Amino acid sequence: MTKDLTQQIESLKSMIEEVLKDRGIPKNIRAIIENVKSKISSEKPASEDFSSAIYALDDISNNINMPAYTRTSIWEIISEMERIKEELK
Predict the structure, then answer these.
(1) To the nearest whole number, what is the mean pLDDT of the chain?
(2) Which long-range contacts does 6-9 make (Cβ < 8 Å, 24+ apart)?
(3) Which of 5, 34, 49, 62 has its CA 20 to 30 A from that of 13?
(4) Which domains does the chain have, with CATH numbers?
C-alpha cells in the first residue's frame, strides 16, 4: 500500500470519526458506522472490506431516523471509499 493511499485511508477514518462524534445519531446507526470504521482500520484493508463497508453505509443512509446533515456526510464517506476501493484493485 502506498503512502498516499495510507494517508487517504487516515483521512477517511477522520471523516468517520467526525460523524461518530455527533450525538444526534441513533445508537443502531452509530454501531454500524463503528463497524465500518473497524473494517477499514485493519492492517491491510482489501477492496472487499471497502465494498462491504460501502454496502453497509448505503443501507443506513436510507434510514428514516438518519439526520439529513449526517446523510450528506455518509454520502461523502461512501464517495471517498469508492475512490479508495478502485485504487486498491
Answers:
(1) 92
(2) 8/80, 8/83, 8/84, 8/87, 9/40, 9/45, 9/84
(3) 62
(4) 3-88 (1.20.1440.50)
Q: What is the pLDDT of residue 73?
A: 96
Q: At residue 73, what is the residue type?
A: S
Give yes or no for a contact between 75 and 17, defined as CB atoms under 8 angstroms apart.
no
Between CA 59 and CA 81, with CA 11 as vertex, the angle to 5 degrees is 35
Which pLDDT band holds residue 89 (cuts at 50, 70, 90)? confident
Q: Which residue has the cell 477514518?
A: 13
